[in-house]
Design brief:
The chain is about 30% helix and about 30% strand. With about 220 residues, it is α/β, with parallel strands linked by helices. The strands form three sheets. The chain has a six-stranded mixed β-sheet, with helices on one face. It binds zinc ion. Zinc ion binds next to loops.
Length: about 220
């Protein structure tokens, strides 16, 4: 087993795509190739990996944009939550595991930002690809208070399940750094320091003021 894990800038709104693979098995997956499918596929080629799946963390266009081109280049299957706007070739429900060589990517269904949101956890190396659920120092946008409550529940579940040393790999480069850990976010992300869901909703409402006060962009 030899892990290949690359975070790739794909353009758009500071989007990140990912390449995850097992060098010995010669297999890999692309996560959210987005606006740069050819670049992400090229990384797989350079690493000697056959791409088996193109996984979407969720169905927003800035994450699925590159699917068609990536499929054309690789012949891989598209995998996403069954509630995704476009029916995936492979449906990934909560608790499902996608096998990549000797790696296993465990899916957590994490609605809130949208109904079909998934995060992907690799338990040997404690890697968590968080899409638009969790950014460095922030959380994903929601349209309504009901969605925000749902997102809170999703966050509590992920943070209640995974160890502090888990590294966090978001869908956009919105934070002070391009990646983080569960432990660091637990202690520094203002949305995760909220004592309860009401404080979480309050902070969302006050976010513009909070950012100004804290000098955040
Ligand atoms: Zn999104």
């Amino acid at each position: 087993m030899c892990l290949i894990f690359e975070q790739i800038r794909t353009g758009g709104d500071r989007n990140f795509g990912y390449l995850v693979g097992d060098r010995e098995a010669g297999e890999g997956v692309l996560i959210d190739p987005s606006y740069s499918p050819a670049v992400v596929v090229e990384r797989a080629t350079v690493q000697g990996l056959t791409v088996t799946h193109i996984i979407n963390t969720h169905g927003h266009a800035d994450h699925t944009e590159g699917n068609a081109k990536a499929v054309e280049l690789t012949g891989a299957l598209v995998a996403a939550h069954p509630d995704a706007p476009d029916q995936p070739d492979v449906a990934l429900a909560d608790g499902d595991e996608l096998v990549v060589g000797r790696l296993r990517l465990r899916c957590f269904h994490t609605p809130g930002h949208c109904v079909d949101h998934l995060v992907l956890y690799e338990s040997q190396y404690h890697l968590l690809v968080t899409g638009d659920l969790l950014f460095v120092g922030k959380v994903g946008g929601t349209k309504t208070d009901t969605d925000a409550r749902t997102e809170w529940t999703s966050l509590q579940r992920v943070f209640g399940t995974l160890p502090n040393e888990t590294t966090v790999w978001p869908g956009h480069d919105y934070g002070a750094r391009p990646s983080s850990t569960i432990g660091l976010e637990r202690h520094t992300n203002p949305f995760l320091r909220c004592v309860d869901v009401d404080a979480f909703l309050q902070l969302r409402g006050d976010w513009a003021d909070y950012k100004r006060q804290m000098g955040l962009k």
